[in-house]
Automatic annotation (TrEMBL):
InterPro entries per record: RibonucZ/Hydroxyglut_hydro
Protein name per UniProt: MBL fold metallo-hydrolase
Gene3D superfamilies xref list: Ribonuclease Z/Hydroxyacylglutathione hydrolase-like
Length: 228
């Protein structure tokens, strides 16, 4: 199983709900790069997309695309291509560096709110060594939290028995303070399927156990890296 898929993609839906949907463009890749679209009053906001045949039809069922969002400095993915097709900007946090210049599409910056989407935004991680800039999104009315990278449900994030885990690089010092302040009904993540039930409890458990379960998590990550 390759870490990152390439070539012909095959879209698989995940995280379907009344106001949105997610997808995996390469369901068989180990990284399980997840993309999401959230509908608010007929406007569709697309988060960290990986393109695939059928994505436009998936979005059209929700409404009109209002913007494409990059939530992590490493998640440029196919944001520019999708934004260009739908004639909308790519939205990048005002404090993120080294991202906008690499996007071949118009860029809009945002601060504590994502335009008029209703999403509050906040810094999950902002450091230079090792480089990591990640912004999270919370929509109070929808009780929905979007975390692009810090937590995920894919195998190499999780210790044995964990449905949700902290990124291996963040486990020694997980972002507990910032993420534990939210109690979402739904959690959407950038790697793997999201959490649609007891999301707040699952998030707090993952953050609380990050260090305690570190040896098991690293073993799981190693197995993922060396598996075929």
């Amino acid at each position: 199983m390759p870490m990152k898929g390439s070539g012909r993609s095959q879209l698989r839906e995940i995280d379907r709900w009344d106001h949105g949907v997610g997808w995996l463009a390469y369901p068989d890749e180990a990284m399980q790069r997840a993309s999401h679209a959230v509908e608010i009053d007929g406007d569709v906001w697309v988060f960290d997309p990986v393109d695939a045949p059928g994505v436009d039809e998936l979005l059209e069922d929700l409404g009109d695309v209002a913007g494409v969002v990059v939530g992590l400095d490493r998640h440029k993915r196919d944001a520019a291509a999708l934004a260009t097709r739908h004639e909308v900007p790519v939205y990048v946090a005002s404090w993120m560096t080294g991202v906008a210049d690499d996007l071949d599409a118009p860029v809009e910056r945002f601060g504590s709110e994502l335009a008029d989407s209703g999403f509050q935004t906040f810094r999950v991680v902002d450091r230079t060594v090792p480089p990591w800039q990640e912004v999270g999104f919370y929509h109070e009315e929808l009780a929905t939290l979007v975390v692009p990278e810090a937590v995920g449900s894919v195998g190499y994030y999780c210790a044995a028995g964990e449905p949700l885990g902290v990124h291996p690089m963040l486990r020694p010092f997980p972002p507990r303070r910032v993420l534990s302040s939210f109690d979402p009904d739904r959690l959407l993540v950038g790697h793997g399927e999201g959490v649609a039930e007891n999301a707040g409890d699952e998030l707090r458990t993952a953050l609380s156990n990050a260090r305690k379960n570190l040896p098991s998590a690293y073993l799981q990550a190693f197995k993922t890296m060396v598996s075929d």
